[in-house]
Amino acid sequence: MLLVLFVALVGWGTPSEAQADTVKIYVHYDAGWGNGLSIRGSSAPLRWASGTSMTWTSGNTWVWEAPPNLSNFDFKVLVNDQKWSVGGNYKVTAAMSRSIHIYPFFGTPKGRIITLPDFFSPQLNNRRNVNIYLPPSYGENLAKNYPVLYMHDGQNLFDARTAFGGVEWQVDETMDRLVGEGAIREAIVVGINNTADRIGEYTPSTDSAYGGGEADTYLDFIQQTLKPYIDTHYRTLTSVSDTLMVGSSLGGLLSCYAGWTRSSVYGSVGCMSSSFWWDDETFSHAVEVYQGKKPERFYLDAGGNNDGATETARFRDELLADGYVSGADLLHIYDPIGMHNESSWARRLPKALAYLLPVEWEIRRS
Protein backbone atom coordinates (compact mmCIF):
# COMPACT_ATOMS: atom_id res chain seq x y z
CA MET A 1 0.00 0.00 0.00
CA LEU A 2 1.42 3.38 -0.99
CA LEU A 3 2.19 5.84 1.74
CA VAL A 4 0.61 9.29 1.57
CA LEU A 5 2.94 12.21 0.90
CA PHE A 6 1.53 15.23 2.70
CA VAL A 7 2.20 18.59 1.08
CA ALA A 8 2.64 21.72 3.19
CA LEU A 9 2.79 24.72 0.89
CA VAL A 10 2.29 28.42 1.32
CA GLY A 11 -1.17 29.51 0.13
CA TRP A 12 -1.96 32.52 -2.00
CA GLY A 13 -3.65 35.15 0.18
CA THR A 14 -6.58 34.02 2.30
CA PRO A 15 -8.01 30.47 2.13
CA SER A 16 -11.05 31.76 0.22
CA GLU A 17 -8.79 33.39 -2.36
CA ALA A 18 -6.76 30.19 -2.71
CA GLN A 19 -9.89 28.13 -3.23
CA ALA A 20 -10.99 30.42 -6.04
CA ASP A 21 -8.02 29.32 -8.16
CA THR A 22 -7.67 25.98 -9.88
CA VAL A 23 -4.90 23.60 -8.89
CA LYS A 24 -2.05 23.34 -11.36
CA ILE A 25 0.42 20.49 -10.95
CA TYR A 26 3.83 20.98 -12.53
CA VAL A 27 5.99 17.89 -12.92
CA HIS A 28 9.67 18.53 -13.61
CA TYR A 29 11.10 15.46 -15.32
CA ASP A 30 12.75 14.63 -18.64
CA ALA A 31 10.63 11.72 -19.84
CA GLY A 32 12.81 11.16 -22.90
CA TRP A 33 12.03 11.40 -26.61
CA GLY A 34 8.69 9.86 -27.52
CA ASN A 35 7.56 9.34 -23.92
CA GLY A 36 4.83 11.14 -22.02
CA LEU A 37 3.68 11.61 -18.45
CA SER A 38 0.23 10.88 -17.09
CA ILE A 39 -1.48 11.49 -13.78
CA ARG A 40 -3.75 9.18 -11.81
CA GLY A 41 -5.67 10.13 -8.71
CA SER A 42 -8.42 9.64 -6.20
CA SER A 43 -11.12 12.05 -7.41
CA ALA A 44 -12.88 12.58 -10.74
CA PRO A 45 -11.87 13.34 -13.38
CA LEU A 46 -8.79 11.45 -12.15
CA ARG A 47 -8.92 7.70 -11.63
CA TRP A 48 -6.51 5.16 -10.14
CA ALA A 49 -7.33 2.58 -12.84
CA SER A 50 -6.11 4.64 -15.80
CA GLY A 51 -4.25 7.88 -16.33
CA THR A 52 -4.94 11.31 -17.76
CA SER A 53 -2.23 12.70 -20.02
CA MET A 54 -0.22 15.65 -18.80
CA THR A 55 0.68 18.49 -21.15
CA TRP A 56 4.32 19.15 -22.00
CA THR A 57 5.09 22.87 -21.81
CA SER A 58 8.81 23.41 -22.34
CA GLY A 59 12.11 21.91 -21.32
CA ASN A 60 11.39 19.16 -18.81
CA THR A 61 8.13 20.57 -17.43
CA TRP A 62 4.71 18.93 -17.68
CA VAL A 63 1.46 20.38 -16.36
CA TRP A 64 -2.05 19.26 -15.49
CA GLU A 65 -4.80 21.65 -14.41
CA ALA A 66 -7.60 20.42 -12.17
CA PRO A 67 -11.21 21.50 -12.76
CA PRO A 68 -12.36 24.40 -10.54
CA ASN A 69 -14.30 22.20 -8.12
CA LEU A 70 -11.39 19.83 -7.41
CA SER A 71 -9.26 20.96 -4.46
CA ASN A 72 -8.84 17.84 -2.27
CA PHE A 73 -7.32 14.75 -3.88
CA ASP A 74 -4.40 12.33 -3.97
CA PHE A 75 -2.36 11.78 -7.12
CA LYS A 76 0.55 9.92 -8.60
CA VAL A 77 2.56 10.36 -11.83
CA LEU A 78 3.46 7.68 -14.39
CA VAL A 79 5.63 7.43 -17.51
CA ASN A 80 3.51 6.38 -20.51
CA ASP A 81 0.81 5.51 -17.98
CA GLN A 82 2.75 2.36 -17.10
CA LYS A 83 5.65 3.10 -14.76
CA TRP A 84 4.78 4.64 -11.41
CA SER A 85 6.96 7.21 -9.71
CA VAL A 86 8.85 6.02 -6.63
CA GLY A 87 7.58 6.90 -3.16
CA GLY A 88 4.21 7.86 -1.76
CA ASN A 89 1.09 9.45 -3.17
CA TYR A 90 0.92 13.23 -3.24
CA LYS A 91 -1.97 14.77 -1.34
CA VAL A 92 -3.57 18.09 -2.29
CA THR A 93 -5.84 20.04 0.08
CA ALA A 94 -7.76 23.28 -0.29
CA ALA A 95 -5.38 25.10 2.06
CA MET A 96 -2.37 24.64 -0.20
CA SER A 97 -0.88 26.76 -2.89
CA ARG A 98 -2.69 26.29 -6.17
CA SER A 99 0.65 25.85 -7.93
CA ILE A 100 2.32 22.55 -6.99
CA HIS A 101 5.75 21.48 -8.22
CA ILE A 102 7.11 17.94 -7.95
CA TYR A 103 10.35 16.28 -9.03
CA PRO A 104 9.70 12.54 -9.28
CA PHE A 105 11.88 9.63 -10.36
CA PHE A 106 10.99 6.19 -11.66
CA GLY A 107 14.11 4.04 -11.30
CA THR A 108 15.46 1.83 -8.54
CA PRO A 109 15.53 3.59 -5.14
CA LYS A 110 19.25 3.14 -4.60
CA GLY A 111 21.74 5.94 -4.09
CA ARG A 112 25.49 5.81 -4.55
CA ILE A 113 28.57 6.74 -2.53
CA ILE A 114 31.50 8.76 -3.80
CA THR A 115 34.60 9.73 -1.85
CA LEU A 116 36.60 12.92 -1.84
CA PRO A 117 40.01 11.61 -0.72
CA ASP A 118 42.30 13.70 1.45
CA PHE A 119 40.06 16.75 1.45
CA PHE A 120 42.13 19.63 2.82
CA SER A 121 41.05 21.96 5.61
CA PRO A 122 42.98 25.24 5.59
CA GLN A 123 41.38 26.14 8.93
CA LEU A 124 42.69 22.99 10.66
CA ASN A 125 45.69 22.38 8.38
CA ASN A 126 44.82 18.70 7.98
CA ARG A 127 43.24 16.29 5.51
CA ARG A 128 40.51 13.69 5.71
CA ASN A 129 38.26 11.65 3.44
CA VAL A 130 34.76 12.96 2.85
CA ASN A 131 32.16 10.37 1.80
CA ILE A 132 29.11 11.64 -0.08
CA TYR A 133 25.81 9.82 -0.54
CA LEU A 134 23.95 10.92 -3.66
CA PRO A 135 20.25 10.03 -3.47
CA PRO A 136 18.47 7.62 -5.87
CA SER A 137 17.10 10.23 -8.28
CA TYR A 138 20.33 12.23 -8.55
CA GLY A 139 21.44 10.76 -11.87
CA GLU A 140 17.91 10.40 -13.25
CA ASN A 141 16.09 13.68 -12.62
CA LEU A 142 18.60 16.39 -13.43
CA ALA A 143 16.02 19.10 -12.69
CA LYS A 144 16.06 18.31 -8.99
CA ASN A 145 18.15 19.94 -6.24
CA TYR A 146 18.51 18.43 -2.77
CA PRO A 147 18.84 19.34 0.90
CA VAL A 148 22.21 18.50 2.42
CA LEU A 149 22.77 16.60 5.64
CA TYR A 150 26.25 16.94 7.13
CA MET A 151 27.25 14.05 9.42
CA HIS A 152 30.31 13.51 11.60
CA ASP A 153 32.42 10.35 12.06
CA GLY A 154 32.00 9.73 8.34
CA GLN A 155 33.96 6.46 8.27
CA ASN A 156 31.27 4.88 10.48
CA LEU A 157 28.28 5.77 8.31
CA PHE A 158 28.40 3.72 5.11
CA ASP A 159 30.94 0.91 5.24
CA ALA A 160 31.51 -1.74 7.92
CA ARG A 161 35.11 -2.13 6.72
CA THR A 162 35.98 1.35 7.94
CA ALA A 163 33.48 1.65 10.80
CA PHE A 164 34.43 1.50 14.47
CA GLY A 165 34.20 -2.10 15.63
CA GLY A 166 33.10 -3.15 12.15
CA VAL A 167 29.57 -1.82 12.73
CA GLU A 168 28.26 0.86 10.37
CA TRP A 169 25.25 3.14 10.71
CA GLN A 170 23.83 1.87 7.38
CA VAL A 171 23.01 5.42 6.37
CA ASP A 172 22.82 4.66 2.64
CA GLU A 173 20.64 1.57 3.05
CA THR A 174 18.33 3.40 5.45
CA MET A 175 18.02 6.44 3.19
CA ASP A 176 17.25 4.21 0.20
CA ARG A 177 14.58 2.26 2.07
CA LEU A 178 12.84 5.32 3.52
CA VAL A 179 12.88 7.14 0.18
CA GLY A 180 11.40 4.07 -1.51
CA GLU A 181 8.66 3.93 1.12
CA GLY A 182 7.88 7.62 0.69
CA ALA A 183 8.79 8.26 4.33
CA ILE A 184 11.48 10.97 3.91
CA ARG A 185 12.77 13.56 1.50
CA GLU A 186 15.69 12.66 -0.68
CA ALA A 187 18.89 14.32 0.52
CA ILE A 188 22.60 14.44 -0.12
CA VAL A 189 24.52 13.15 2.89
CA VAL A 190 28.05 14.41 3.48
CA GLY A 191 29.94 12.11 5.84
CA ILE A 192 33.00 13.88 7.24
CA ASN A 193 35.65 11.47 8.51
CA ASN A 194 37.14 12.20 11.90
CA THR A 195 40.85 12.59 12.55
CA ALA A 196 43.26 11.80 15.36
CA ASP A 197 42.18 15.12 16.90
CA ARG A 198 38.52 14.10 17.11
CA ILE A 199 38.16 15.23 20.73
CA GLY A 200 39.56 18.66 19.96
CA GLU A 201 37.55 19.19 16.78
CA TYR A 202 34.24 18.03 18.23
CA THR A 203 34.21 19.98 21.50
CA PRO A 204 33.09 23.60 21.96
CA SER A 205 35.02 24.28 25.18
CA THR A 206 38.02 22.98 27.09
CA ASP A 207 37.33 20.24 29.62
CA SER A 208 39.69 20.18 32.60
CA ALA A 209 40.21 16.43 32.24
CA TYR A 210 40.21 15.97 28.45
CA GLY A 211 41.24 19.27 26.86
CA GLY A 212 39.55 20.02 23.54
CA GLY A 213 37.78 23.20 22.53
CA GLU A 214 38.41 23.47 18.76
CA ALA A 215 34.81 23.05 17.59
CA ASP A 216 34.51 26.56 16.19
CA THR A 217 37.55 26.04 13.97
CA TYR A 218 36.16 22.69 12.77
CA LEU A 219 32.78 24.31 12.05
CA ASP A 220 34.57 27.10 10.19
CA PHE A 221 36.11 24.38 8.00
CA ILE A 222 32.67 23.01 7.15
CA GLN A 223 31.04 26.40 6.62
CA GLN A 224 33.87 28.17 4.80
CA THR A 225 35.50 25.33 2.83
CA LEU A 226 33.50 22.10 2.63
CA LYS A 227 29.99 23.52 2.23
CA PRO A 228 30.98 25.90 -0.59
CA TYR A 229 32.64 22.97 -2.36
CA ILE A 230 29.52 20.79 -2.00
CA ASP A 231 27.21 23.60 -3.14
CA THR A 232 29.42 24.30 -6.16
CA HIS A 233 29.91 20.71 -7.33
CA TYR A 234 26.50 19.17 -6.56
CA ARG A 235 22.87 20.16 -7.08
CA THR A 236 22.02 21.40 -3.61
CA LEU A 237 19.35 23.47 -1.94
CA THR A 238 21.20 26.06 0.08
CA SER A 239 18.57 27.61 2.35
CA VAL A 240 18.79 27.25 6.12
CA SER A 241 15.79 24.90 6.11
CA ASP A 242 17.60 22.64 3.63
CA THR A 243 20.91 22.44 5.54
CA LEU A 244 21.15 19.94 8.39
CA MET A 245 23.70 18.39 10.72
CA VAL A 246 23.68 15.10 12.66
CA GLY A 247 26.17 13.38 14.94
CA SER A 248 26.48 11.10 17.93
CA SER A 249 28.36 11.24 21.23
CA LEU A 250 30.76 14.19 20.97
CA GLY A 251 29.44 14.56 17.43
CA GLY A 252 25.96 14.96 18.90
CA LEU A 253 27.16 17.69 21.24
CA LEU A 254 28.89 19.32 18.27
CA SER A 255 25.73 19.19 16.13
CA CYS A 256 23.65 20.86 18.85
CA TYR A 257 26.35 23.46 19.31
CA ALA A 258 26.46 24.12 15.55
CA GLY A 259 22.70 24.54 15.37
CA TRP A 260 22.68 26.86 18.36
CA THR A 261 25.62 29.06 17.40
CA ARG A 262 25.15 28.94 13.60
CA SER A 263 21.40 28.89 13.18
CA SER A 264 21.79 31.05 10.08
CA VAL A 265 23.46 28.03 8.45
CA TYR A 266 21.79 24.92 9.94
CA GLY A 267 18.02 24.79 10.18
CA SER A 268 17.75 21.34 11.77
CA VAL A 269 20.15 19.32 13.88
CA GLY A 270 20.15 15.76 15.15
CA CYS A 271 21.96 15.04 18.41
CA MET A 272 22.21 11.32 19.20
CA SER A 273 23.57 10.12 22.56
CA SER A 274 25.13 13.54 22.92
CA SER A 275 27.97 14.17 25.35
CA PHE A 276 26.22 17.02 27.13
CA TRP A 277 28.30 16.18 30.20
CA TRP A 278 31.35 17.76 28.53
CA ASP A 279 33.05 20.50 30.57
CA ASP A 280 30.48 20.28 33.39
CA GLU A 281 27.62 20.85 30.90
CA THR A 282 28.91 24.30 29.99
CA PHE A 283 27.02 24.33 26.68
CA SER A 284 23.77 23.21 28.31
CA HIS A 285 24.03 25.99 30.86
CA ALA A 286 24.48 28.53 28.06
CA VAL A 287 21.26 27.27 26.43
CA GLU A 288 19.51 27.44 29.79
CA VAL A 289 20.42 31.10 30.27
CA TYR A 290 19.31 32.11 26.77
CA GLN A 291 15.66 32.98 26.25
CA GLY A 292 14.37 32.15 22.78
CA LYS A 293 14.92 29.78 19.89
CA LYS A 294 17.85 29.23 17.57
CA PRO A 295 17.63 26.48 14.89
CA GLU A 296 14.25 25.51 13.46
CA ARG A 297 14.22 21.90 14.68
CA PHE A 298 16.03 19.73 17.23
CA TYR A 299 16.16 15.93 17.34
CA LEU A 300 17.53 14.49 20.60
CA ASP A 301 17.88 10.89 21.74
CA ALA A 302 19.65 8.75 24.31
CA GLY A 303 19.60 5.16 25.50
CA GLY A 304 19.06 3.68 28.92
CA ASN A 305 22.44 1.96 29.21
CA ASN A 306 25.06 4.48 30.33
CA ASP A 307 24.20 6.76 27.42
CA GLY A 308 23.72 10.21 28.94
CA ALA A 309 19.94 9.98 29.18
CA THR A 310 19.77 12.22 32.26
CA GLU A 311 21.84 15.01 30.70
CA THR A 312 19.88 14.71 27.45
CA ALA A 313 16.55 15.04 29.27
CA ARG A 314 17.90 18.08 31.08
CA PHE A 315 18.94 19.66 27.76
CA ARG A 316 15.47 18.89 26.37
CA ASP A 317 13.88 20.70 29.30
CA GLU A 318 16.10 23.72 28.67
CA LEU A 319 14.91 23.83 25.05
CA LEU A 320 11.30 23.56 26.16
CA ALA A 321 11.88 26.49 28.52
CA ASP A 322 13.29 28.45 25.57
CA GLY A 323 10.04 27.99 23.64
CA TYR A 324 10.47 24.78 21.66
CA VAL A 325 7.39 22.58 21.45
CA SER A 326 7.65 18.83 21.89
CA GLY A 327 6.50 17.00 18.78
CA ALA A 328 6.60 20.15 16.66
CA ASP A 329 10.08 21.68 16.51
CA LEU A 330 11.60 19.35 19.13
CA LEU A 331 11.62 15.56 19.16
CA HIS A 332 13.16 13.66 22.07
CA ILE A 333 13.47 9.87 21.97
CA TYR A 334 14.37 7.74 24.99
CA ASP A 335 15.55 4.25 24.02
CA PRO A 336 15.41 1.97 27.10
CA ILE A 337 17.67 -0.68 25.56
CA GLY A 338 19.93 1.78 23.75
CA MET A 339 23.67 1.78 24.29
CA HIS A 340 26.46 4.19 23.37
CA ASN A 341 27.40 2.45 20.13
CA GLU A 342 26.94 2.35 16.38
CA SER A 343 24.32 -0.39 16.39
CA SER A 344 22.01 1.68 18.63
CA TRP A 345 22.48 4.77 16.48
CA ALA A 346 21.78 2.76 13.33
CA ARG A 347 18.60 1.40 14.88
CA ARG A 348 17.32 4.87 15.84
CA LEU A 349 18.42 6.55 12.62
CA PRO A 350 15.08 6.05 10.78
CA LYS A 351 13.25 8.04 13.46
CA ALA A 352 15.79 10.82 13.27
CA LEU A 353 15.65 11.00 9.48
CA ALA A 354 11.85 10.92 9.35
CA TYR A 355 11.75 13.91 11.69
CA LEU A 356 14.62 15.90 10.18
CA LEU A 357 13.69 15.23 6.53
CA PRO A 358 9.88 15.38 6.68
CA VAL A 359 8.32 14.13 3.50
CA GLU A 360 5.83 17.01 3.34
CA TRP A 361 8.73 19.37 2.61
CA GLU A 362 9.55 17.48 -0.59
CA ILE A 363 7.23 19.61 -2.72
CA ARG A 364 8.81 22.78 -4.09
CA ARG A 365 7.09 25.98 -3.11
CA SER A 366 5.83 28.06 -6.01
Automatic annotation (TrEMBL):
It comes from the Bacteria. It holds the Pfam family Esterase. Transmembrane segments: none annotated. The keyword Signal applies. Residues 1-20 form the signal peptide. Gene3D superfamilies: alpha/beta hydrolase. GO terms for molecular function: hydrolase activity. The keyword Metal-binding does not apply. Keywords: Hydrolase, Signal. PANTHER family: ENTEROCHELIN ESTERASE-RELATED, FERRI-BACILLIBACTIN ESTERASE BESA. This is Alpha/beta hydrolase-fold protein. It comes from Streptomyces sp. 900105245.
